[in-house]
Amino acid sequence: MPSVTGRLANGSSPAGIVRPLAAGGVLARRRETLDGSMSHHLLLWGAVPFLLCALCVPLGSQQIAPPESTARVLPPSETLHFTVEWKLITAGRARLSWSGQPSGGWQTLLRIESAGLVSKLFKVQDDFKSTFAADLCAAGSELMASEGARRRDTRITYNRDTLKAHYLERDLVKNTIVLEKETDIPGCVYDIVGALYHLRTLNLEPGQTVQLPVSDGKKSVSARIEAQTREEIKTPAGVRKTIRYEAFLFNNVLYQRQGRVFIWLTDDRQRVPVQIRVRLQFHIGTITLLLEKEERP
Fold first, then answer.
1. pTM, full prediction
2. Termini Cα distance of the chain
3. Residue 1 burial (CB < 10 Å; 0-12/13-18/19+)?
4. Residue ranges per domain, the chain?
């Protein structure tokens, strides 16, 4: 079970984008930089909705549990549509679908696609499928990544009986295994998307933190999410009242690179993710996923 910790109010918040280019010569000079940056960083997009947890000890000492009487209930199904913004232009779109399974578990389907100028220079289409048990603990995932000339198939199986995660990544162009390994995991571990949905069920108020076991199949960490403040976020559907969270996935926690992750969930019983922002090194910049549309039966 995750632990939630109170804190005093005083504290004791992939790729490069090219701005609109008027001349072909400017585009040619910028393209090399853009391609190189993208080839290393667009893989992060598949993990963005996630970007949910970090390895840290809890702040404060008072241990409390989320009140059962007001715990949020996830919808039986939904589809969320996001725009992906990078340095003031639309770099792509994301679609995240959630549904229950006949077995009693859950499934998510995430598609990330590049758009506009970015797509012309470096086309991306990533499909990420995750399956979970009824308690949202990870069962398995599959990523089919098409990024420029790269074609990768990555599959992860989480075994609650053996307490192992099996990771297998294949290069579909070269028909070779890129990486295969096993990682120790606890009896219940969340993948990135599962952690997002679990966060939506918690009553985490500003000044509180929660720790969750999180794994990407290659590494397993005890991860922390911090509720920071209430904010209003403007979306295409209107202004939404939200709570901002910070997750500390980067800085050699789950991912080695330097960065910060912020998630805005609506301040209501649905707890819909309306904005996710990833701040990376200066030469990469900030990537923002902004909710465009939500669909439910």
1. 0.77
2. 31
3. exposed
4. 3-295
